[in-house]
Amino acid sequence: MPLNNLKATGSGRFFHINHLYNDDIQKKIKIMDVGAVLIQLKPLHMQQVHDWQRTLKARQDEVIETLKAEQVHVESWFYLQLHGQDYLIAYMRADNIQKAQNIAKLSTFPIDQVHKQFKTSWQAVYPAELLLDATVT
Predict the structure, then answer these.
(1) Fewer Cβ within 10 Å of end Cβ, the chain: N or C?
(2) Looking at the DSSP assignment, which residues form a beta bridge with residue 31?
């Protein structure tokens, strides 16, 4: 994909790039934001991570409902430990990440309140730069 088809923007939570996919056969253009961040957790906050994970798994229907409201297609979370420090990686694919974040900030869904409380376990958030995004349609 030529680089002139990419528009990079930053936000408070995710670095993301708008992709223009042009399928010559179907003549469709699909615009999608992709973003990821590295989240450094506060020391001794792994119990909060496990509680958050269990809650979201148990309330999966609510999670899906909020993702739909935010027009988020994929949200994935990963855990890693580096040099004794705990981190999370969050990945998102949405119609518009900035719009999704704005919707989430104003959300009254109870499950979003769980997530907002979980964010108090975060020490720092580092946006990741997208180097390659390959999608098969």
Answers:
(1) C
(2) 20
Q: How far apart are CA 62 and CA 112, in angstroms?
A: 9
Give buried/exposed letters for 44-65 (b at 16+ CB in 10 A, else e).
Answer: ebeebbeebeebbeebeebbee
Q: How far apart are CA 28 and CA 65, in angstroms?
A: 27
Q: Domain extents for the chain?
A: 35-127
Closest listed residue to residue 124, CA positions, set 65, 15, 40, 22: 40
In Å, what is the CA distance from 53 to each residue of 6, 7, 114? 34, 33, 10
pTM for the model: 0.76
pLDDT tens, residue by residue, 44-58: 999 999 999 999 999
Partners of 109 in the beta sheet? none
What CA dihedral angle connects 60, 78, 72 and 5, to 10 degrees? -160
Q: Give the C-alpha separation, 96 to 4, whole Å.
A: 19
